[in-house]
Predict the structure.
Amino acid sequence: MPSSQYGVLICFRCHDFRKHDVLLGLGLYCIIPCHLFAAYLIELAAAQQARSSRRRAEKRDGTTSPTEDEGKKFQAAWTLIRAAHAVNITLALAITTFAVYFYVHHPLIGTLAEVHALVVWLKTASYAFTNRDLRHAYLHPVKGELDTLPEIYKQCPYPQNITMGNLVYFWWAPTLVYQPVYPRTDKIRWTFVFKRLGEAVCLSAFIWFASAQYAAPVLRNSLDKMASLDFVSILERLLKLSTISLIIWLAGFFALFQSFLNALAEVTRFADRYFYDDWWNSESLGTYWRTWNRPVYQFFKRHVYSPMIGRGWSPGISGFAVFFMSAVLHEVLVGIPTHNVIGKPAPFSVGADFGCDKVDVNSNSRCGLLGHVLAASAHRNYQAPREDAGRHGQADRELHLLGVLHDPWPAVRSPDVLLRLAGQVWKREQANATELFHRRVPGAIDG
């Protein structure tokens, strides 16, 4: 066993929370309410138009039966409302994605900002679609559409639900599907809230500890094997990593779906706590996908799958559309904060500074893979070669954990040079770890 695996490997000073990243992350978080306010204004204008249309119908013949021309006007109005919502929420997600990918270096801050933008994107889409259905029922009561609405909706009928307070509650509610009214609890149990928050904090600390103490060393120990393309050893490292990855995933699932969402539901007095089902008893992969993440499943079922089925699409095509959209959103959620969308690092990430973005991935896929590993488990205090002193200044460049660089490295466009540099990084850190271990334990023999 390499000596680098002895002792506590956690480093509290290796996390580079720059002031620039923190301020930019806070700024991105504060931008989102502006887009929510824009969504409210869009629906407010649509509600005013619906009220006017209904008053005209009542003055005409005493009923609210719409004419054919009014039906066409409703469709034209919905086209404009849909376009306005699409521009608004897509702009919100695009701004956050661009800023995170190119300007936020720390992956944790980038992930929080991207998750917030993506959640609001989904919520605003549900807000627009649900209000469209409520508006249609409001303008066509003779067809019995109002009678088909849930009984709880009568507590806040359309368009009385178009208020900023109603939208802000939906913003914070632990659900992705909009309703004018939700089942509410009578009071907030603060003891329950603090217990759930304590669980979330402790599990987050455990995830960080497990990642730093076990997952990151396995990744670092894999660099030389990947550089030499030792597939047997690579497979061994993957098997070692699978165990700790499963533990981290289970801890993260419990922290999010059981602890955090229940605490948020208690604070907002949100009574529907159906965040997951017994996915561990799933008899098929499809059942697992439908039960482990109920909020996302309900969103796609209500706003993608069911509407496609109602329009005549087959269940297979509808299911594929849901799967494809979910895959794209997961790629955005994971690839953007780590600056590695489909294996292509961002310009300031470790892989790109090693020259991976200049290499044809199809001709040599080792570069993108190794660049991603280096970005996830980079070593510190490595001296870069001084290839262009006049352009880059001093030769020493400090490479921080998770691929955060203070200065760009000189471009290294050859994959072979990249692999040699990775091997040098590994050997340097192995030697430093061995020396440190023998200082702590005199006379020890490497196992």
In short: The chain has three domains: 19-172, 188-327, 344-440. The mean pLDDT is 76. The first strand starts at residue 340 and ends at 341. Residues 19-61 form the longest helix (43 residues).
